[in-house]
Design brief:
Layout (H helix, E strand, L loop, with lengths): L1 E5 L3 H13 L3 E5 L2 H8 L6 E5 L7 H10 L6 E5 L4 H9 L4 E4 L4 H14 L8 E4 L2 E4 L4 E4 L2 E4 L2 H12 L5 E2 H9 L10 H14 L4 E6 L3 E6 L2
Parallel strand pairs: 1-2, 1-3, 3-4, 4-5
Antiparallel strand pairs: 6-7, 7-8, 8-9, 10-12, 11-12
Helix pairs in contact: 2-3, 6-7, 6-8
């Protein structure tokens, strides 16, 4: 899971990033609201931890702009502002949870898992499900009632993204960003090769769904005809 931590207190950010990394999250840290918005707008993160009092843009402004841009990434706000009205403002602007400082890391970790489950992503701490299929986030194994098969790292990243947002068409650009990163020279027309590999593995497992191409846009999960 990829987490974006937007926190201007650098010592706190380093400590949180270290603990999150130990919990097997991939963490990027930025220290002001403007940079935070730029990173968040990539759409590559599974969860955003967002401080409120920051330079350039405060957390409420960042959150409002994230939601205005139709980004559905879950956001947990982290702040010393514990007034009820501040919490209401954050939640009304689209936050998924609101954690007041100081907080314990076990509490934050539990709230992160709860938010991800409510978004329909996690069925346990390490699995995603779609239809009758289960994708293990630690072993890269895809399972159905008829068997299981291992995925390569790229196949896993592609299918994980589609499992996380099963109701949406996954744009080619977003899939490439998720699996190959920002500076990849990977050509979008080669993406079909990887999707073909995944379709064959789904067929091997007799899955009830496949991956369909959406002309000019990307790919989506769909029930087999």
């Amino acid at each position: 899971m990829r987490v974006l931590l937007i926190e201007d207190e650098k010592e706190l950010a380093r400590a949180l990033a270290k603990m999150l990394t130990k919990d097997d999250y991939d963490v990027d840290c930025v220290h002001d609201g403007a940079d935070g918005l730029n990173f968040a707008s990539s759409g590559m993160y599974d969860l955003i931890l967002l401080d409120v009092i920051m330079p350039k843009m405060n957390g409420f402004e960042v959150l409002s702009e994230i939601r205005r841009r139709k980004l559905e990434t879950p956001v947990i706000m982290l702040t010393a502002l514990a007034d009820e009205n501040d919490k209401i403002l954050g939640l009304d602007n689209g936050a998924d949870d609101y954690v007041s400082k100081p907080f314990s890391f076990p509490e934050l970790s539990a709230r992160m898992r709860a938010v991800l489950r409510r978004r329909g992503k996690l069925v346990s701490d390490n699995k995603l499900e779609y239809a009758e299929a289960s994708l293990d986030l630690t072993t890269y194994v895809l399972s159905t009632p008829t068997g299981e098969i291992s995925l390569t790292s790229k196949e896993f990243e592609l299918l994980r993204y589609m499992f996380e947002y099963p109701k949406f068409v996954a744009a080619k650009e977003d899939l490439i960003l998720k699996a190959w990163g920002f500076n990849s020279e990977f050509e979008s027309n080669n993406l079909e090769v990887y999707m073909s590999f995944l379709r064959k593995k789904l067929l091997h497992l007799n899955a009830s769904f496949t991956i369909e191409a959406v002309r000019g846009v990307g790919y989506k999960l769909a029930a087999k005809q």
